[in-house]
Amino acid sequence: MKKIYFLLQILLASSVCCYAQNQSSWQWAKRGGGLSGDNMLDMTTDKYGNVYALTFNIDSIDIDGQTGLGSGDQISLVSWDCNGNYRWMKMFGGTGTASVRAAALATDTLGGVYVTGAVHSYGTDALYFHTDTTITGTMAGLYIIKYSSAGVFQWFKMPWKNTANVTDDTAASLNLSVSPNGRVFWYAYLMPGSYDGNAFSISQTKYYAVEYNASGVYQQKHMLDMNTTRHAGIDLYVRNFNRDYQNGRMYVTGQYYRSLGILSFGSSSVVSADSANIFPMFIAAFDSLGNNLWMKQGNDSFTASVEGRPAIDDDGHVYIAGYSV
Hints:
- The protein is mainly β.
- The two termini are about 30 Å apart.
- The chain is built from no helices and 29 strands.
- The chain has strands spanning about 5, 30-35, 35-45, 50-60, 60-65, 65, 75-80, 85-95, 100-105, 110-120, 125-130, 135, 140-150, 155-160, 170-180, 185-190, 195, 200, 205-210, 220-225, 225-230, 240-245, 250-255, 265, 270, 280-285, 290-295, 305-310, 320-325.
């Protein structure tokens, strides 16, 4: 039986690989961002305790004393070692009105660092991923990029793009879950069509977990047994995803907004007592093929929110954190 833990507080702990002193003592802190705005999108570590942060920034980037490439910078991928020493930084952005957005960050034990997100570009505007790859032209697209733990570019792929309609948001890149051996599971909302240079095709509009190997080669896809009434913004509330690499089970967590339509997993629908004011949280489990196993939700007359992807320990216990109002 799997156990689900609801964490009502955030526990701060230091990596044992770095510190032998009292674990309750403060170790180090970093600050930074952009002059006009910034937001922490995701954060993770690797097996050596190196820290990776994925941030959204606007104007005059300064992160731990490090500056960006220029005024087009929008996304920062930054790494420190477990003692807080700066290692490297990559900037993603675009010229003119081109934009890069990032959704998730993940690592494996083979030295891989992965980021997924979306891009939009217009005419001759250029999209750039640091100095490693540049894309020019009108398009809407979803991407996955990989670096080594030392910040060396490995590969870049765009499984979906539309060069006819730059405002096309019918597909969405939502999250990543990467197993220790580099099996990449890309969680995305996909429409019928051909993807990744005809590597695979989609016949039903659904949420999918698409698997790539550590070299970025397509392996297989799994359609998740979940349904929503498609509405602008719905993906924000079903984007938390993780996979248990030991048994292949997958988990989706989030918050249900009834005003955005139905949300169901298998034969179970998330319910809310009030479409305007009550937003209950939920967690759903799927087997390795995407079949729904179960769904749990919070009180349908009580608002609570799950923050971040569910965490899974070596015993298969699932932890989710959030807040309530």
